[in-house]
Design brief:
6-stranded parallel barrel; about 35% strand
Length: about 90
């Protein structure tokens, strides 16, 4: 279950993440779900407010070169998933 906490500081984050404009540029395409019970695997994300609820903590970065992971938000859950097969964070978000 990918329960995501957005952190302000790099030292608190599991990874630095950059949102790319196109699906073809992403390592991972993600879809936001409204309930924690709907979050599955690495690609279906539910955002949480508290650290103890999170399975993964990320920090959004301003530049692509700073990122450990490049992501793209998709409209439908069926579109979500990894685009980079052997990424080092695969299986770590959920």
């Amino acid at each position: 279950m990918a329960r995501i906490l957005e952190t302000r500081y790099e030292s608190q984050a599991d990874a630095k993440v950059f949102e790319v404009p196109y699906e073809s540029q992403a390592d991972l395409c993600w879809h936001e779900v409204p309930y924690a019970s709907q979050a599955q695997g690495d690609a279906l994300w539910h955002f949480v407010q508290y650290e103890q609820q999170a399975s993964f903590k990320l920090q959004w970065v301003k530049y692509e070169s700073q990122a450990d992971l490049k992501v793209h938000k998709v409209k439908y859950a069926e579109q979500a998933g990894w685009r980079t097969a052997n990424h080092k964070l695969r299986g770590q978000l959920g």
